[in-house]
Structures
1.
Amino acid sequence: MVTAMTDADLITRYGGRLPRYTSYPTAPHFHEGVGAGEYAAWLAALPPDAEISLYLHVPFCDRLCLYCGCHTSVARQERPKRAYARALAREIGLVAEALGRRAPVSQVHWGGGTPTALPDGCLAGLMDIIHARFAVAADAEIAIELDPAALPPAKLAALAEIGLTRASLGVQDFDETVQKAIGRMQSFEETRAAAEGLRRLGVGSLNLDLIYGLPYQTEESVARTARLALELAPDRAAVFGYAHVPWMKKHQALLPEAALPEAPQRLRQEAAIRAVLEREGGMVPVGLDHYALPGDPMTQAVKAGALQRGFQGYTTDRAPVLIGLGASAIGTMPQGYVQNQPGIPAYEASIAQGRLPVARGLELSGEDRLRRAVIERIMCDLAVDLPAMASAFGARPEALLVGAAQLRGFLADGLVEWDGARLSITPRGRPFMRNVAALFDAYLDRPSTQPRHAHAV
């Protein structure tokens, strides 16, 4: 029997701190026992035909938004940016040498920070090196994250040189009061000019990032932002809840904390955005926080049960290898995870010494692989067949669940359905998807090397 719980009751019960599950085990459990030597061996052991995705992290912005949780900083001078670009170029070479061949690449993703913060010629020059050292597929997806307010015509034109196919524009919120509070002034006209400019370049897929849970936001204001976003004709939208972690990101302490919405308000804001995107924009919900048009490849991947989730969020990329390049970048290998030095000086020092700049990582056990597969299907499909999944890994399904008591609570509260084999998340339970995934997280209560996670809702 389903209990009559209000949203506030559910949040009180389930609103603790949880991972976003862009990996399993999650990054706080990486350790220094995995370093450059292990990474080099893992690269050398990859099958010759293994497809690879590349992620290049640019830790610079033209402005520092107060809500930001990324590894980035504001650098006014050109010299450190060019030095960083040279280090990136050398790291590309080090990885290619460890691979020992021009490995096939199916996707290149530029993230940050703001990649266009690099000086003129850097993006194109690095892309030329990638083409020289890797066999980039003719139909490879070349994606980039952009700040519309830092995209003058010259920067926009430079993007044509890297073969861009997909772009993600940071919108966050169009309300001026909210923008002032978060230190990110950005007009709708600027954003529209950026979107139209990207379309003129031939960019076929446009994503917009929206955030709820920011200071001074209301249900009405986030709905207005969502409607304005739809005027830009996006193919996809990502709707993130602001993660307030000032103990990790000191600049977040500058936000007016008293103006941050409480958890029930956050939940209603998310619902308001969702209603606009689905009912007025015709978008289809994808996983926890993404939306896409019905004909989009991401929507098709959902229907086919082929949606993936990684450190860049939801993706259609099926490559078994993600190589992270740049300071703080994380890579995913069949053998495990590696993360580069987070600080630019340490990163550049490693590169200067001819070493892969790995700071820490984690080698996957057989149990890790099974639990990773279960959690990924929950986060992507909102359902998982536990006996079938366990059988595929030669394991017993009854050993998977680490939160049996919590599962009984989820059933009573109508968040999940369970027939003894298939576990599925109900529409009511969708905002609590990470709580359901945590039922299978054997690491959650272990000590970690990093501060804990943001609130689940």
Note: The longest strand covers residues 135-146.
2.
Amino acid sequence: MLNHVLPAFIVGGLICVIGQLLMDLTKANITPAHVLVTFVTSGVILGGLGLYEPLVKIGGAGATVPLSGFGYSLAKGAIEGANSNGFLGAFSGGIQAAAVGIAAAILFGYLVAVVFNPKG
């Protein structure tokens, strides 16, 4: 088990460090929203070029759980959809690939909102 956890921790941690460095070292006042868009877009571009796949093979969940992994799954789904269903599959494939993750985020977000009471 440790042989899967350590690479995931390192890869995921490095992705988080990059986001933190973007916010801390830039004078352009980069907000978390800028980092979100940058990471998703980077994941799509790197996934489309086939450069994110080696990171997923090394880091597993450490590469697929962060926002860049969401972009990667969109790109991978779009490519698979285009290969199987042509031009329109490029649009539907990304949504189908990311649907489970989006549904889980909505479900768990709702459950947490129901169970816990916000302060203030």
Note: The chain has a mean pLDDT of 90.
3.
Amino acid sequence: MTPLEHVFTETFPAPRERVFRALTDESELCAWFAEHVEVQPQPGGEFRFWGRHTYCAPNRASAGQKVVRIEPPTVLVFSWPIDGCASEVTLELAEGPQDASGAPTTVLKGRHYFPEAPAVARPLDLVDDLWRMAVSNLRAHLAGIAVCRADFSHPVPHLRQSVLIDRPRDRVFDALLDPAALDQWIATKAVVEPHVGGRYSYGWQYEVRGRQVEGGPTKILELVEDTCLVTDWPDWRGNPEMPSQRVMWLLESIGPRTRVFVIQSPFERTADLSDYPQGWAHFLGRLKQHCEAASST
């Protein structure tokens, strides 16, 4: 028997009572977390969540989560059977420091513990990704912006996002290949060799579980001027045993404007989408802002 523990800490720009309500109110949970939710806010009460946005719980009969402990607005503990394995989630909320504008923040400390780890590939990554999805969408929900929930019922997990930019297609495509432009909206010291097989790097560097990782793409796989850019995408955690993915940028003219699609695939399982959907939505917004600001200068 091998136990598994995943811990995380997140800070949200909202009062503690507001965050706790988003974690325990049925209608709010349905808005950012699960398709269906039933909550009885008392020890031993139901804390069921299921549907296409929930891993391993497509229907109510498969949802056996229960409240273990609840102390508004500071503590929520609930059980969560996953893949036939018992687990317990502890969420603790504390008042955080005021932000730059003097508004309150909340620090959430989470712990997800399995006495026996699920018998799946990369179980720690699975749990980590599930919480990255949840935390990303909770943050979006609290900010009043669109959430990007994964669909666990889809047979072919993939990510597809788009944005409409008020600039011609050639100008937008330049922002994908010009290192100086990339540094304005996605990269740090970008490197681009604009041909198939050429180096393509955002210059990202970070640490994952004590390992230094050079993240993001490394080379160009396909290139069609003003239309398509495809790069590789090695495992973001730096696991050399994980197969590389592909990230495709497609540009389509809509009159004088440009529709940009970003498509990332393949994913071995839906949970591996992690917080990529919100991440790409953020960068597409940055791309739009950069291109449209350039048109006004």
Note: The chain is about 25% helix and 35% strand.
4.
Amino acid sequence: MKLLLISGAVSGVKRYGNLEDIGSYLPPYGLCCLGAVLEKAGHEVMIIDSVRHPLSLLALAEKVKQFQPELIGLSVYSIGANQAIETATAIKSEFGIPIVAGGPHVMVFPEDLAQCDAFDYLVTGEGEYSLLELVETIESGGDLERVQGIYFHRDGEVVKNEPRPLLDNLDDLPYPAFHLIKGIETYAPHQMVYRRKPVVTLITSRGCPFQCIFCNSVWTHRWRGNSAAYVVGLVEHVIEEFGAREVSFHEDTFALNRRRVLEICRLMKERGIRIPWTATVNLTTLDREVIKAMKDAGCWLVSCGIESGSDEVLRFIHKPVDKETVRRVLGWLSDEGIRIRGYFMIGHLIETRETIQETIDFARSLPLYSMNISVMYLAPGSKAREIAHEYGSTNMSLDIGSSYQRGNLGFVPRGLTAEYIQEMHRKAIVDFFVRPRQFMRLASAIRGPEDIRRYYRLVRSFFKVVRAKA
């Protein structure tokens, strides 16, 4: 079967506003995983990433006409759910091709999307084998009710099949089909999280056992990871096949399994893999031995969610860390020469003027190479979205789907105003970056022309933030 897979309609402007030129643009990893499984089974696949390479509906229709797919898959994100429905409706109206929807928004709100006539099928949960089985059942004319993990329409009714169990062994999956996307070198994480292109983003585990209330945990709280041998083989694959000069492990908590991360580091050194790499980590999973092994294997930066400078707020949001632990682990990282990017939020459900200032002061006191601070976002499917009305005013519009949103906010804590939160957001950025110490930290990381170009883009965006009106 010929399948066209389309990444959801979420443009850089939609996600980042006037900061779209420094935003994070990652490969459509889920579609590449789907494509790999489908190709391995003998199907022909085309991927269109309308996030990184936006297309008008007219241009998209021309692509459909040229490829002539027998089934179209569309990934749907909450921030772009309305646009995805419009896209599916237009395609269905013109071509009549069956459309299957999947992705984060489908995982959270399947019942809502199941009512949309533009989608013939929904794939919920992990989609690799549900989509493959759906395709093969359609081809053979088999019984759709036997396909786990899908919704479909029959005689005007929505049929919900039993869910598909989570994959126990992620190593059973082939490597993502990065060859199906346009120009791996056009993708990169945030400007502060890589040194050189091409940088290839990898996701080598799924799920997170922690219970932070602001997270929607679409992969569930059950953690599963690829084996160390698979991970290192994948790194070698993207170096050899796609010219990767850097790798970013962009998953909820790369170092959760201590034995696995130590084995990954050992194998990378053993096989002579010398490219730099970064990872997203939970600070509670790190110790001195793990940090040293990561540094020795090429890790130059870790990103970590710190979220607040108030222990009271950290306890409330169920963040499994306190300020003392943050200081201790960041000290270990700094001692080993691993740079640190810290993530913070303001506007938490129980936020006050005092706790916001605590967060700003705490961020300034830490040995951070870089900092990202965002405004509280009520992620669909999160506990915070469920209970936010008890703590302040809410706006549940899916168009407010980004912590970069200016103007309207999704949540304002009782006793504060949107204008105050946005002003403190700007203040936090200025207070953190406009310091001689921070200038020196950033300057010490300059290695060549590419760094200078990235810093120029960052400085330009910095002034957009500080000059912006709430």
Note: The two ends are 50 Å apart (CA to CA).
